[in-house]
Amino acid sequence: MSFQRTYAIVLRVFYLMRGSFTRVFPLFAWSAIDIILWGFITRYLNSVAQSNFNFVSTLLGAVLMWDFFTRVMYGVTTSFFEDVWARNFLNIFASPLKIPEYLTGLVLASILTSAFGLVIMVLIATFLFGLSLFSYGILLIPFILVLFLFGIALGIVAISVVLRLGPAAEWFVWPIPSVLAPLAAVFYPVATLPSWLQPLARLLPPSYVFEGMRAVVAGHSEPIGLLLIGGAIAVADIFLASWLFKAMFSHAVRTGLIARYSAESTT
To answer: pLDDT by residue (tens digit) across 2-24?
Structure first.
């Protein structure tokens, strides 16, 4: 695998961002709005709650982490869509670029864009609403890592679907985080779900992250077991997603469907 070709994918994303504020703005704008909205909601809940329960560290912290996961996923898909929208995808793979180099470039670009969005969200949540990420302790790092890995996996799955079904299928991608949120136990325990949905929730790494976060805030024992299970599923998802993309790309090349992404294509 060539580092230079991988770096070229990252550099292309950087040049696109540098040349257009409309591409930079979505990296933090919608997440910032979410943080502000939920920040006021948690402040209100704290004011009317009869106990000393702190909604900021539970609800607002969960919103911040879920928005980070969403930014990671969109970081992968948007970089791919830039090539689709420019009808440049076929040109890229006419070069010596290999699939692992392309996917690695998308992942590195997602790291940069999601990290930028995370910093903005943390600043807003900390200075406006008093959220302290230190309340999660050292476990904050594996919490973020598991969400990052699953976001990358889901992003690769999403672009595989678009590669198979065509550019118009991008509209299947944007609602994915909203569809998964009820199953990911972002705001409530998995036990709240109907019994027939709980096994499905256990297949999603974020459910282990948010269950662990609530356990830490409540002062329970450190959820190392939950993090290990969630991390193992997330790593397995990465390999499965990469295999799926390779299979979809091979199918598109073999059947000629990849021509839908050429500069001459109008469909």
So the answer is: 788 888 888 888 888 887 778 88
- In sequence order, which residues have a C-beta less than 8 Å from that of residue 70 and are 6 or more positions away? 31, 151, 177
Using the structure block, give the residue that is written with the tokens 């292309």.
12
Q: What is the pTM of this model?
A: 0.88
What are the respective helix, strand and coil percentages of the chain, to the nearest 5?
A: 80, 0, 20
Outline where the chain has alpha helix (H): 3-18, 21-24, 29-48, 55, 61-85, 89-93, 99-129, 140-165, 176-180, 198-201, 205-217, 224-255
Let me know: does 73 contact 158? Beta carbons within 8 Å.
yes
Residue 200 has pLDDT above 90, yes or no: yes
Q: Given its phi and psi angles, is residue 132 left (phi above 0), alpha (psi -120 to 50 degrees) or beta?
A: beta
